[in-house]
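May I ask for a single protein's sequence together with how it folds?
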Amino acid sequence: MSNSKLIESFKVGTTLSAQRIVYMSAANTVAYLNTVTSLPVGVTIDTVDDTTQAIPVQENGKAHILFNDTVAAGGLVTADSNGRGVPFSAVTAATAYIGVLVGEAVAATGTIAEVLINPGFQNIP
């Protein structure tokens, strides 16, 4: 089984930090999620302070994410407004997530843990 990861460079419109979940904005740049319906495209693997640069974003495989809340092992993960991982909670007809927490539960804010990237939506009937 291959351990390769797809990493692409994207334009940025603002400063972004490493290990954060991002989506494609209307300005054709990556940004932190702005709503629960924004579909994530991946996880930043570097920090960019200069908005004239590009940022590498991992689009598949297991990625390290900085968490801002506790998450159960095997739980779905979404992002807060700063791109940090939080537990997924379906609150609208189409709520987005980045993937599944693999390994142990996240028990404290500021923890870095692995998530298997598999973005999607969950619909509430």
Notes: DSSP finds no helices and ten strands in the chain.
